[in-house]
Amino acid sequence: MKAWQVAELGEPRDVMGLVEVPEPEPGPGQVSVRVLGAAANFPDVLMCRGRYQTRPPLPFTPGVELCGEVVAVGAEVDGIAVGQRVLGGSVLPHGGFAEMALMDAATAFAAPESLDDAQAASLFIGYQTGWFGLHRRAGLREGETLLVHAAAGGVGSAAIQLGKAAGARVIGVVGGSEKAEYARSLGADVVVDRHREDFVEVVKAETGGRGADVVYDPVGGQTYQRSTKCIAFEGRIVVVGFAGGEIQSAALNHALVKNYSIVGLHWGLYNTHDPASVGECHRDLAALADQGIVRPLVSEKLALDTVAEGVQRLADGVTVGRVVYVA
Fold first, then answer.
1. DSSP per-residue codes, 53-111
2. Which CATH architecture group holds 126-268?
3. What pTM did the predictor assign?
4. Is the distance from CB of 216 to CB of 159 less than 8 angstroms?
5. Which helix (H) or strand (E) holds 205?
6. I need a labelling partner for 24 at 20 to 30 A (CA). Which of 51, 57, 143, 214 fits?
7. How many angstroms separate the Cα of 23 from the Cα of each of 8, 70, 86, 98, 233?
């Protein structure tokens, strides 16, 4: 079968190569799938660069999120049948940017019939991260103001839709007019183009000086630091990641004086610490998808031979919406 493999670390376009490899065989608790769709995520970029918290052995096939048709079931797997269409995370080093991949049966869930393969491939990581970040970590409530950074990206776009589903007023921050239009199409009530406006001033103006109740931050660095200037009394800043490349330090005296909370979110830990909640989250997301309340917006579909360039565009920050390899 054909698969993209990373044999050395660096930028995706430089280190990803399309090669012939044997089809992976599922081990205990695993299933092998024919890949129907695999969404590009920033962890794929970071793993190519060797900068992600998980470092699979070289060579490996990236593609941490996918939708596939089950072709073989390993030992100790119940409730998943050959021929079933499932979505979830891959088992590295056999990721989704290939004709076949491996998945952990515990985090392989039935794909909603309301979503096509590309959409279903995009429903797992970003939406699960948003669901846990907004509900479990931040306790977002109806009527609150939610500030979403990188609102046109995979994680940010999911947070917009989930925030609206929760009854929040959503302010999205993006970089550029094309991304601004995309954030509006997702349902953001207010969109800030950071190239033209200061999001701190916009948030203060839109909230009568109160500030945002919840800040959803996958960027970090100066974005986090400036968010502390527009966080509300008893607000919550959810630290999701550091896509901006700078890992900030938190001034805890400032959190004390302004009475806000800083909460971290490592979504992957729920798979080991509270796996039942991951299934609960998927059922909620699938119901929202079937109702048309959340729907991943796929902006670009990739053929297998163009995957590396698509991942590089994500790395360069020029993509809008979800970029998905579709078989």
1. SS-PPSSBB---EEEEEEEEE-TT--S--TT-EEEEEEBTTB-SSBSEEEEEEEEEEEP
2. 3-Layer(aba) Sandwich (3.40)
3. 0.92
4. yes
5. helix 199-206
6. 51
7. 21, 13, 19, 10, 54
Distance of CA 58 to the CA centre of its chain: 24
Single-letter amino acid code for the residue at 181: E
Nearest CA to 3 among 117, 113, 136, 97?
Answer: 97
User: How many helices and strands, by DSSP H and E, does the chain display?
Assistant: 12, 14
Of 314, 255, 272, nearest to 122 (Cα)? Answer: 314
- Residues sharing a CB contact under 8 Å with residue 129, sequence separation 6 or more, in sequence order: 155, 158, 240, 265, 267
Tokens representing 274 are 């509270």
Options 3.90.180.10, 3.90.105.10, 2.40.110.10, 3.40.50.720; which CATH number does 2-123+296-326 get? 3.90.180.10
- Domain spans in the chain, listed from the N-terminal domain onward: 2-123+296-326, 126-268
Amino acid letter, 244: G
Number of neighbouring beta carbons within 10 Å of residue 287 = 13
What's the pLDDT tens digit per position in 127-182? Answer: 999 999 999 999 999 999 999 999 998 899 999 999 999 999 999 999 998 899 99
Does 2-123+296-326 match 126-268 in CATH topology? no
